[in-house]
C-alpha cells in the first residue's frame, strides 16, 4: 500500500520565506503528495510568490477574512484528499528526505496514527539542536513513544512543522481550537496524545525559524488567547505535570508582557507540587529579577547553549 500525504501550509505575510518553504516540499525525494496552501488574507506579496511556483500539486485556498492559524490548519485538514496530513508553517522548511522518512515510519508502525521527526532551530542563521529526554540509545532510530507527556516535559521533541497526523485522529480528538491564538499546539497535543502514541524518528529533518517578527501568530488578533488547559486536568499525573508546566510557562510569558493581573489569575491554578524548586522561585520572582534571566538565556542560546528550569 502506498502512502499519500496532504501537506497543509497556513500562509499569512510570509513573502520573504514561503518560496524556500514551498521548494522544500516540492523537492522531496518521496513524491506522493499534494500541497494545500491556506492564505489567511495576507497583506504582502506572499500569495504572488506561491502562485509563481506553477506546480499542479499545489492547491490554494483563500480565506475571505483573517481567521488565524488554527482555522487555517482546520481549513487545510477539511480540504485534504489524502489520509496522512503533514503540517508545515510558511517560514519553516524540510530536509529533502522528510516525507520519505515519515512514509517509512508509517510502513514500520502501521498501527500508529501520529508521526514526527526531530527538528533544528534557526536563530539568525545559527542552528541549534534541542536536546530531548529520549534515551541515548534511540539516536538515529525510529521509536514509538507511549508516554508523550513524560518525554516532552520541558523541551518538546516535535513542532507543528514536523508532525503528520492521520485524518481519523481529528474525528476522535477534535480539530485545532479556533478560539485559541497562542499555544494552540499544546492544546492539540494534550488531546491527541491522551489517546494516541507517537511514532518518532530521531533525525533532525525539519528547520524551524525562530525570532520571526512576522510570525503568523501576530495577525490581526493582537490579544493572545491562551488555551484553557485546566479542562484536561482529569488525566494522569504525567499529564497533570505537563499541564502545570505550561501554566508556569504562560505565567512567565504574561509577566514579561506586564500583564500582572492575568498572570495572578493563572498562577492560582498551578499545583506547586508539579513544579521543581527553580520553577517555583522563578514563578514568584518579580519582573526586575525575571527579565535579566530571560535576557541571559537568549544570549547563551545564541551561542548554542540552552539554560532551562526543567
If you had to describe this structure to a student in words, what would you say it looks like?
Helices cover 35% and strands 19% of the residues. It is an alpha/beta fold and 310 residues long. It has two domains: 5-209, Spore Coat Polysaccharide Biosynthesis Protein SpsA, Chain A; 229-302, no CATH class. Strands 1, 2, 3, 4, 5, 6, 7, 8, 9 and 10 form a ten-stranded mixed beta sheet that branches. Strand 6 and strand 7 form a beta hairpin. Helix 8 (237-256) packs antiparallel against helix 9 (260-267). The longest helix has 20 residues, at 237-256. It starts with a strand and ends in an 8-residue tail after the last helix.
Keywords for this structure?
single chain, 310 residues, alpha/beta, Spore Coat Polysaccharide Biosynthesis Protein SpsA, Chain A, 2 domains, ten-stranded mixed β-sheet, 11 helices, 10 strands, globular
Q: Report the count of strand segments.
A: 10
> Which value, in Å, is the CA radius of gyration?
19 Å
* Average pLDDT rating: 91
What is the CATH topology of the largest domain? Spore Coat Polysaccharide Biosynthesis Protein SpsA, Chain A
User: How many discrete structural domains?
Assistant: 2
Structural class: alpha/beta
Percent range for β-strand residues: 15-25%
Q: In the CATH hierarchy, what is the architecture of the largest domain at level 2?
A: Alpha-Beta Complex
Shape: globular
**Can you give the helix content as a percent range?**
25-40%
Distance between the termini: 42 Å
Number of helix segments? 11
The topology string of helices and strands comes to: EHEHEHEEHEEEHEHHEHHHH
Low-confidence stretches: 212-221
